[in-house]
Design goal:
11 helices, five-stranded mixed β-sheet, alpha/beta, four-stranded antiparallel β-sheet, elongated, 29% helix, 13 strands
């Protein structure tokens, strides 16, 4: 059961693993993308209008979600800090319920308060906790596993949730994961919570994904290729989707991910300023991972890197901007992912990278690293064939 499911970053990873999933998604173009990818989506679009007892989702034993948390993006100032503290206080109230009747009364009060906040979206982050408590108190069958992810500023909330969940029977923990350390060709950080129903051992440690690739830091040299004989071309795995052969592989670069569309060296100039200076645009060469792919990634500019007479690299002519397919690749989506709508950049920018999702779900469900063949399936994935009768439908 995937809340705030987006275009399917977690769900396509679940499909690769052979795990059936269904998502809740509000946005119609994003629902169309999910449908074209063959992912199940609930008829009801609103997470708040559904619950674990609804017939379409009642059998789900795993809960995942990445609730929108724009109100925490300013966590460094007073308003963002207050939103964090409000959520922690309200979460304490929800987990304090001991039966269905008391929970309904508490949730009514919590909802009235969040609805009256200056940013009503603050309440979204409490929805997964509502689902967890309703599964326990109303469905009488707690979720076996819970996985929540969001931007780094939400880590204090996830840490607080982990403490609360340990008090009601879950082994739980939260960590900050670096996407490039798992083979995603961008430096994206995600705050991740993993909880496993285990009333007898709720205090135990929770296994989290172990980094498989070099973490990027400015000024740090990229690890060399391992000294091994190259296999025939038809047996080579794409660097983007391959599972590392050694203890830790070098980071996957923008150039690796876009090798088929951009075979020459280039530099990617960010749409955002660095160090508070809007004129100081961040730059990454094709030998580095991209900066975080956001919904505005098509504003990034690309320039050819040419070698001058002194043998040094210098910026040349401007190249075409990143295409939606390329943006998807930098998020580790398959090349043929069926993005729908005339402007899919926001869908891509908001998605969870499927490659990172494979690591997270494998850790949460199996307590081990992903299987090698899953990365091959991700690389080779194609959208399901669509018959004329189903073309243009809005999904389940």
């Amino acid at each position: 059961m995937d809340l705030f499911a987006g275009p399917g970053g977690l769900d396509i990873a679940a499909a690769i693993m052979g795990v059936e999933s269904i998502g809740v998604e509000w946005d119609d173009p994003t629902r169309a993308t999910r449908d074209a990818a063959g992912l199940l989506t609930t008829v009801e679009k609103d997470v708040a209008a559904l619950g674990p007892c609804d017939p379409q989702v009642v059998d789900a034993n795993v809960l995942t979600g990445g609730p929108p948390c724009q109100s925490f993006s300013v966590a460094g100032n007073r308003e963002g800090h207050k939103a964090l503290k409000d959520v922690e206080r309200l979460a304490d109230c929800l987990v304090g319920a001991r039966d269905r009747k008391s929970f309904d009364a508490i949730w009514g009060e919590v909802k009235r308060e969040t609805d009256s906040m200056s940013d009503s979206r603050t309440g979204f982050v409490l929805q997964p906790l509502r689902w967890i408590m309703e599964a326990k108190l109303k469905r009488k069958k707690p979720y076996d596993v819970v996985v929540l992810e969001q931007v780094p500023t939400v880590l204090p909330v996830w840490n607080h949730y982990a403490k609360l969940l340990r008090g009601i029977g879950y082994a739980a923990g939260a960590h900050l994961l670096h996407a490039e350390a798992f083979g995603v060709p961008q430096t994206r950080r995600r705050a991740v919570l993993i909880a496993q129903w285990d009333p007898e051992s709720a205090g135990r440690d929770v296994y989290f994904p172990e980094a498989t690739h070099q973490q990027y830091r400015k000024g740090v040299e990229r690890l060399p290729l391992p000294p091994q004989e190259d296999p025939p071309a038809e047996q080579q795995e794409s660097a983007l989707f391959a599972r590392p052969k050694g203890p830790k592989d070098r980071w996957v670069s923008v150039g690796d991910a876009l090798a088929t569309t951009r075979p020459r060296d280039f530099v990617l100039v960010s749409n955002y300023g660095s160090g508070g200076d809007p004129k100081n645009r961040g730059r990454r060469t094709s030998e580095e991972p991209a900066a975080t792919i956001t919904g505005k990634f098509r504003r990034n500019r690309l320039f050819l890197l040419k070698e001058n007479e002194a043998g040094e690299k210098e910026i040349g002519e401007e190249l075409d901007r990143l295409s939606p397919e390329e943006g998807g690749l930098l998020q580790s989506f398959p090349a043929r992912y069926p993005w729908q709508s005339t402007d899919v950049a926001q869908q891509i920018g908001n998605a969870v990278p499927p490659r990172l999702s494979l690591h997270i779900l494998s850790a949460a469900l199996l307590r081990e690293r992903p299987k090698k063949e899953w990365f091959g399936r991700l690389a080779e994935w194609e959208p399901p064939a669509r018959s004329p009768e189903t073309d243009g439908s809005e999904g389940p």
